[in-house]
Design a protein that fits this description.
about 300 residues, alpha+beta, eight-stranded antiparallel sheet, 6 helices, about 20% helix, elongated
C-alpha cells in the first residue's frame, strides 16, 4: 500500500459504544480521552492514535477497519492498483457483479482527472468518481479493501423491475451516451445491474418488458440478450464498470479479462456485499478491490 499522508478525517464510524472491559469504542477503537481530544490533537498525536487502532479493533473482533485515507490518498492508491497491474476491481452485489482485472495481460490504461480516476482496456472501462466522504475499509492483511460512502450520500434510485433509464448520459465514452440503458431492477440500494444497447430490435424488446421482474425478463428474452450481447453496465453511487465482451453461453467457461456475472441463485439472498465484507451500518459499498495473491 501507499504510505499515506497525515490522516485528515476522524476514525469515527458512527458506532459510539464503549467496550466495558477495555474502555475502547466498539466502532473506532479509541478510548474516551482520545475521542474527547481528537479535534485538538496535533497531526503527530492523531497519527499515533491511528497506529494503535488496528490492534485494538482486532482484539475487539471488529472486522472492518476504517483506514485513515483522505480522498486524495484514495485517488493515488486506486491509480497505483491499476498501474501496478495487480488485483481486481469489482462493483455490484453478490450474484450480479462486474469485474475489472488489472493483470499485465490486460494492458490497462490509467485515466485520471480532477473528478475521477479509472482504467480502460479493449474489453471494459472502470471509473471511480471522487467524493470527500469516500472512505476505505480494510479487512486484514492481504484481504479485500472496500470503498464506501455514507448511505445519505447515495443518489441511485432503487428499481424493483426492468426500468428504461433513457440514453446512457453517464457512459464513460461519448460513443455510448446515445445508446439506451436499462436497469434490471434488482432492488438493491448500493448498486444496479444494467444493459446498454443501440440495437433497435433489442431496445424494443426490453421496452416491451419494462415493469416486469428480472426473472420474467430473462424467461421471455434471455436468448435474445445472449445472442445480442449488449454492453453490461454495473454502477454504484460512485463507481461504474462497463463490460463490452460477449456474454458466455450457459455451461461455458468465462473468458479471462473483464466480465460480468449474473447468477439468479445468489441474488435470492438479497445481500449488498459478500459475506465477511460488511461495512458499518452508516455506509454502503462503492467498489471492492481484491489484491492479487501474495500482495
Amino acid at each position: 500500500m501507499l504510505q499515506g499522508p497525515i490522516p485528515r478525517h476522524s476514525p469515527c464510524v458512527g458506532v459510539c459504544t464503549l467496550d466495558p472491559a477495555s474502555g475502547w469504542c466498539l466502532g473506532c477503537g479509541r478510548n474516551t480521552d482520545e475521542i474527547a481530544r481528537w479535534s485538538t490533537m496535533d497531526e503527530a498525536e492523531q497519527l499515533d492514535c491511528w497506529s494503535k487502532l488496528p490492534r485494538r479493533l482486532a482484539t475487539l473482533s471488529v472486522q472492518a477497519h476504517l483506514l485513515p485515507w483522505a480522498v486524495d490518498h484514495i485517488t493515488k492508491w486506486v491509480g497505483t492498483t491499476l498501474a501496478a497491474e495487480r488485483g481486481t476491481w469489482v462493483t455490484g452485489v453478490p450474484g450480479a457483479v462486474a469485474e475489472f482485472p488489472c493483470g499485465p495481460e490486460h494492458n490497462v490504461e490509467v485515466v485520471r482527472d480532477r473528478d475521477f480516476v479509472g482504467g480502460r482496456t479493449g474489453k471494459a472501462v472502470f471509473r471511480l468518481n471522487l467524493h470527500d466522504k469516500l472512505r476505505a475499509f480494510a479487512f486484514g492483511q492481504g484481504a479485500p479493501i472496500v470503498l464506501g460512502i455514507p448511505k445519505v450520500r447515495v443518489p441511485l434510485a432503487v428499481a424493483h423491475t426492468l426500468t428504461a433509464l433513457g440514453p446512457d448520459i453517464g457512459a464513460v465514452d461519448i460513443q455510448g451516451r446515445s445508446d439506451q440503458l436499462f436497469d434490471f431492477g434488482l432492488g438493491r440500494r448500493s448498486s444496479r445491474f444494467c444493459v446498454r444497447t443501440g440495437d433497435p430490435a433489442l431496445g424494443q424488446a426490453l421496452r416491451n418488458h419494462c415493469s416486469s421482474a428480472w426473472p420474467n425478463v430473462l424467461a421471455a428474452i434471455g436468448a435474445m440478450l445472449m445472442s445480442h450481447s449488449p454492453h453490461r453496465v454495473v454502477e454504484s453511487a460512485l463507481a461504474r464498470i462497463e463490460v463490452f465482451t460477449p456474454i458466455p453461453a450457459p455451461g461455458t467457461t468465462t473468458p479471462p479479462g473483464a466480465h460480468t456475472h449474473f447468477l439468479p441463485q445468489l441474488l435470492t439472498a438479497g445481500e449488498e456485499v459478500p459475506a465477511g465484507l460488511s461495512l458499518p451500518d452508516y455506509a454502503l459499498p462503492v467498489a471492492i478491490y481484491y489484491p492479487a495473491p501474495g500482495d
